[in-house]
Amino acid sequence: MTMPDAQAGLSEGPLAIICGGGSLPKAVARAVMARGRRVVLFPLLGFAEPEEIAEFPHHWMGIGKYGAFRRLVEREGCRDIVFIGNVVRPNLRQIRLDWATLMLVPRLFGMFRGGDNHILSGLLRIVEQDGFRVVGAHEVAPEILVPEGVLGRCVPSERDQRDIGRGMDVIAAIGPFDVGQAVVVANNHVLAVEGIEGTDGMLARIVELRRSNRIRSPEGTGVLVKAPKPLQDRRIDLPSIGPKTIDGIVASRLAGIAVLAGETIIADPEFVADAADRAGVFVVGLPSLRRREAS
Q1: DSSP symbols for 9-51
Q2: Domain limits of the chain?
Q3: Low-confidence residues of the chain: pLDDT under 50
Q4: Domain 15-140 falls under CATH 3.40.640.10
Q5: Which of 29, 186, 242, 277 could make an SS bond with 267 (beta carbons 3.0 to 4.6 A apart)?
Q6: Would you give the DSSP letter of residue 46?
Q7: Per-residue model confidence as pLDDT tens digits over 44-102
Q8: Which CATH number fits domain 145-294: 3.10.28.10, 3.40.50.1580, 3.40.50.10800, 3.40.140.80?
Q9: What's the whole-model pTM score?
């Protein structure tokens, strides 16, 4: 079966990367530059870390400065835009808006009356109406996607496989409500569902539940399961894992992580595999439903 070219239809001009926190923006920028394409980063104040973007051409941007962003993107000659990195939902009343953003306030308030997918889809429409094209980070850097199979030496047990299946069912069930992309399941019991706190916050919750003896499953059991929401726009906010996720699994004393291969972004895959091996936990990329249907 021939897979479509991930970069088909993309422009050849410089790529604008809007950067949240974490190491993923750097990984995407390096992969794009290795292909010979120029990148310009737009790190978000309060979210992106200076050390992660220092090596690239960049312009720091504040939330609510869409007019300034639009002018800079046009000046840099960018048409394609990638969103990547961690961002916590801002409160519009606590940020300063430039004039272009003020003109969008009625739409923005409507977008904020919903889950993250509702907000992000609305932002994409605004950007695209101004003539830009939003592309997925995985379209310009497909190597950042989790491959199918086990990363490292540890493999899930039959019990883990059952918990993985349960977790995927839960994500599919809650997806239409735009709730979250991750759950923790142990012995067929749903221990936690990701909310506004994100995956790291959910794992911290598991740590506290263990501490207070609210979780009765033995240490070393339970799986973090992550997958995109069923109706999610794959160009933005794909689920991701990285070294910090392994730290969370170790702290919460779970058995491992299961994600959809080809639909989950991974930061530092070799480091993640090594860290998982050292901790004795598994990381597995599951074949996605869409791939199974296409094969």
Answers
A1: T--SS-EEEEE-BSSHHHHHHHHHHHTT--EEEEEBTTTS-HH
A2: 15-140, 145-294
A3: 1-9, 291-295
A4: no
A5: 242
A6: T
A7: 888 899 999 999 999 998 887 888 888 999 999 999 999 998 876 666 565 666 666 56
A8: 3.40.140.80
A9: 0.82
